[in-house]
Amino acid sequence: MRNLLSSVMLLAGLEIAFGQPNEIVITYNDCDHPLTTLCGGGVAIPDYSVEVELMWDQNNNGPDSTDQPARQSENGPPFTIPMNGGDLLGCEGTFISESTFTPWPSPPNPPRYWLRIYIADGPTTWRTGSFTVTEWYFELLLQHSHWFCNESPVACTPPPQVPGFIVREDGCNEYSIEWQPYPAWTDVDSLFLRRGENGQLIARLPRIATTYSDTTLPPGRAEFVIFARRVCTAAQDTTLSPIAVSDGARFVRPSRVTSVAATDGMPTSVTITWSPVANATSYRVYRDSDWIGTSGALQYTDETVSPGVIHWYSVTAYNSNNPDNCAEGEHSTLESGHMAATAVPHERPGIPDEVTLSQNYPNPFNAETTIEFSVPRMMPVRLELFDTGGRLVRTLYEAQTSGRAVVRVSLEGMPSGVYIYRIGTPETELSNKMLLIR
Predict the structure, then answer these.
(1) Span(s) in the chain for CATH 2.60.40.10
(2) pTM for the full model?
(3) Which of 47, 161, 304, 341 stands the most exposed, by the fewest C-beta atoms within 10 Å?
(4) Rounded distance, CA 371 to CA 352, Å?
């Protein structure tokens, strides 16, 4: 049987030793003397209303306000045990750790710990003395005499109000809450955040925290309250700071636009259409990553494109009632579109009897050049651009056409070097090289 507890109370605290290395199980199961919400009165602490905190007596001088929460790894969360006796032991005001605690550092130096329970509505603090952990398995079975309770702190002055507390007015998809760092000299160990002065406690935060975000409340305005808790000498006294109050707003970014389509081969323009977004007041249209215009309807006509050049379009929803940081939604998927190429009918003189592909002009070039080709009769034509590794860079032109056509090509933003352009028809494939120089 692992429970070899020595219930000796020493001046420094409790000392216990057992069988497997570096593990602690903690139990308080005295149903005749449950821990209560008030010292010497109140009711048994309800299940899951508070947590039992394991504290590290790192300076080896007994419980005091300099002790830090015990952890199982350097950056791990504090180790706590929920008040769960009603659920697991048959009586509230008791608890048992459902998982073992493995100390960090390992081995801890000094190997001394104590327990603390804080009831904010009291405020009431229960604590034990320190107990010493050896290298063996510990099953710490606490007795009622091991607990100390302080109901009405009188020597613990309240800490100052949390400085610079503000709920931002431009929260995007969340309420964004900020405050200034709490000074270390205040002996504050925790900050408590509520929704409104008498509202629900939504977070308990360490002293060093300076931000929090809430994504659970609906859009609009909401009030938040923050206050600090000070734990004074020997951890027997606790007190709270004055509350700080602020309200702010949460906005919802417009949803992503869907079902974007762009026309191909129209004679004078490219028309882009899309599906509606519920919280949009307008839509922004982008061509090749550049913003080209805004529409209050569900379509936009681009009349500034060059004949035969394929462009990539995307659309975003925009809400002018939102702040700038939350006004524009995500880009839609890209959709290609192009205007018909300028072509000379086959009957006009100078049209060869076969497919031709001219050298681009100018060449070399910086950013923009033109490519001329001719097709003797109506047929599908595709003009593509490749790098020297044979990888497709983009499709420059694709349509059913005949006659002579001039395609304007922009390689803005592309790296300098040699590129290969190729024309493909059912009858033949032709290619040439071009040189881009920055």
Answers:
(1) 166-251, 261-339
(2) 0.42
(3) 304
(4) 16
